[in-house]
Structures are given as C-alpha cells and as structure tokens.
Design brief:
The chain is α+β, with helices and mostly antiparallel strands. It has 6 helices and 7 strands. Strands 2-6-5-4 form a 4-stranded mixed sheet. A 3-stranded antiparallel sheet has the order 1-3-7. The longest helix is centred in the first third of the chain and has 15 residues. The model has no long low-confidence stretch (mean pLDDT 88).
C-alpha cells in the first residue's frame, strides 16, 4: 500500500516524536493514502512554521489485512459514534484505553473540525456532530503509533512542493 506524509521536511526515517498538540488518533506518525491531502497538509505545516520548502514523503507498507494480523490495529470504517468518542478523547487528552500500534480511519476536513470543536464545547450534540460528518467529504489517515508499526513503513521518495500552491 502506498502512503504519503506532508511536512516542511523530508522524512526518510519516520520517528515517534513527543506530541505538541492534540491530534485525532493521539501521538504517532501520520500518513494518508490520499496524495492531495498530504500535499495540502504539507503546505499548512509549511505556512504555520513559515518554511520556505514543503515536501510529501512517499512510503510503502503492507496491505491493511496483513498489518491487522501482525499488529494491534484499530480501524474505523466510517465516522461513527466510536470514531467520534476516540477522536474526542484524544483531542482532549482524556484517552486511557488500549494502546494500539496502528490506527486507521477517517480524518475530517477543516469544516468538520469546527463541528468537532462545537461538540467538544457542548454546543452540538453527538448525534448532530455525526450527522454533519457523514455528509462531508472525508479523507483517511493511518497513524503509526509504535516502533513496531514504524518498522513496516519503507521510505520510497519525496516530492518538493511549490509554496503558495492551492489544492
């Protein structure tokens, strides 16, 4: 399976870094199967860090079915109540459940993050939050959350992006 990671640096050797902010699936190395999503994220990171260059690093890994046999994998097929609870607990630093090697599932676009924020603040009830997520275009994310999981990720190449491009 081909995966992409967007950043302002080339990441030939993925590592688990201390978490600087609350993310959907907790601490880990985030990738996606969607090249455009990785490009967009790289440009956002570059803008946030005021970097002159942005990159998409490309990797190969085993198919998800193989990874499920060899790693502790949590998979979300769609943005449902379990996904929302997991994302909410991670984004608020309250997750205390099992530790997984790999987490795979939907990532919401920026408009959905506003809905999640409203849910976190108690403005939007859970059912409405899930309903709004299901009518939006969602991409995926595969988070490598352990050294064992990272060992399945093989760097292939990277692409330099032109800063200022819009996707």
């Amino acid at each position: 399976m081909r995966l992409y990671h967007g950043s302002d640096v080339v990441v030939e050797i993925p590592t688990l870094l201390p978490q600087q902010r609350a993310l959907d699936f907790g601490a880990g190395f985030y990738t996606t199967t969607n090249l455009r999503q990785a490009e967009s994220f790289a440009l956002k990171v570059g803008d946030r860090r005021e970097s002159a260059k942005c990159f998409v690093s490309v990797y190969e890994t085993a198919d998800l079915a193989i990874l499920k046999k060899e790693l502790m994998v949590l998979e979300f097929a769609q943005p449902d109540e379990q996904w929302l609870d997991y994302v909410f607990e991670n984004r608020t630093g309250k997750y205390t459940g099992p530790v997984y090697d790999l987490i795979y599932g939907p990532v919401a676009n920026d408009t959905i993050y506003r809905v999640l924020t409203a849910y976190e603040e108690g403005i939007v009830p859970k059912e409405e939050c899930i309903r709004q997520m299901k009518v939006r275009r969602l991409y995926n994310q595969m988070t490598f959350a352990s050294e064992k999981a990272l060992s399945y990720l093989k760097f292939i190449t990277s692409t330099l992006l032109i800063v200022g491009e819009v996707f």
